[in-house]
Design goal:
This protein has a single domain (3-333), classed as Rossmann fold, CATH 3.40.50. The protein is 48% helix and 11% strand. The longest helix has 28 residues, at 124-151. By secondary structure, the protein is α/β, with parallel strands linked by helices.
């Protein structure tokens, strides 16, 4: 709290050198993603891929990047997390044309208070913040591991979460007792106004559970660092879909407490390039203020452990139906 009055986090990229490497930032056309891309550009990667929902917004981000940093090798790739087919198309294209992949920052997020279904039939923020982000990460996993093998390097996958996951003291009993936890969370029947009020922290809890479960399924000898990061309360477009009194309250709180998007982006960059001497210390961890922090008591509890296992199993099952290649990735690269 009151992070606005704290000194800015360190700029770890001052010491980083990403020459020859490829960095991919999801949700890079604005806010945290764009500011992180600017910092990555300063490390002179061979390729910097901006994964954006819109070609026009992506190109605008490339132009801003060039003006701010002089970097001229940024690429715009289109992906819409509210459409599973778009994520699959993105991953298929990367399989064909992507090549090397050293750093992925899965940053896209959606904050809403009202139920709205995607074309795939899921509540929008649950799909964007959790399921589609998980699909994105799993499908890019082979490219990162192939990079590690070919170039003898240690790729990193950074999943942007939030300290708001601490607000979830336990899953609603209706969800916890449901035979299909995620299906219940994403259903119109469950997404009442009361339940949607707590939707964002729930989706960010899902991000933490996914990253921890993924890390647990990665063999210890596999050269890949997976972690989650809390950028803090920042000025961004995250709440652009929230209106009325709640929007006014968030705006006032932002004036008083929020960090700039640039300040928050430093934490994303640190997760991707920090701790160079002992990178394994970041494996599977939750990171904020450029240091490892303990996740919530719920996540560490017995019930939280059960929820994590169920969340993983259901996510893999759901996404394998969406994209059969997910099952192949899990079978080939991840331990049971």
């Amino acid at each position: 709290m009151f992070e606005f009055f704290r000194d800015p986090d360190p700029l770890e990229h001052d010491q980083a050198d990403l020459a020859g490497k490829t960095v991919l930032v999801l949700g890079a056309n604005t806010g945290l993603g764009l500011e992180a891309a600017k910092h990555f550009a300063a490390t002179n990667p061979d390729r910097l891929i901006l994964a954006c929902r819109s070609a026009s917004k992506g190109q605008a981000a490339v132009d801003k990047l060039r003006v701010a940093t002089g970097y001229s090798k940024a690429e715009v790739w289109i992906v819409n997390l509210a459409d599973f087919a778009s994520v699959t198309d993105f991953a298929d294209k990367f399989d064909r044309d992507g090549g090397r992949l050293d750093i992925v920052v899965a940053n896209a997020a959606l904050g809403v208070l009202k139920y709205e279904a995607t074309k795939d039939g899921w509540e929008a923020s649950l799909q964007v913040n959790s399921l589609a982000t998980s699909l994105f990460c799993l499908r890019l996993l082979p490219a990162m591991l192939q990079t590690a093998q070919e170039y003898a390097t240690l790729p990193r996958l950074v999943v942007v979460s939030s300290g708001s996951h601490y607000e979830v003291e336990a899953l609603d009993k209706r969800v916890a007792k449901s035979p299909e936890m995620l299906k219940t969370l994403g259903s119109a029947e469950y997404c009442t106004s009361e339940n949607m009020a707590a939707r964002y922290p729930i989706t960010k809890l899902c991000s933490v559970l996914f990253a921890r479960a993924l890390n647990a399924h990665i063999p210890s000898t596999t050269p890949l660092i997976v972690n989650t990061v809390d950028p803090g309360f920042c000025h961004s477009e995250l709440t652009r879909n929230i209106t009325g009194l709640r929007a006014a309250v968030i705006t006032i709180m932002g004036w008083i407490l929020a960090r700039t998007a640039e300040q928050g982006s430093r934490r994303l960059v640190w997760c991707a390039v920090g701790q160079q001497e002992q990178p394994d210390k970041l494996r599977g961890e939750f990171i904020t203020r450029c240091s490892v922090q303990e996740v919530s008591d719920y996540v560490l509890s017995v019930d939280g452990g059960r929820a994590q296992n169920r969340f993983w199993d259901e996510t893999v099952e759901i996404l394998s139906r969406v994209d059969p290649k997910v099952g192949s990735v899990v079978e080939k690269y991840l331990a049971v």
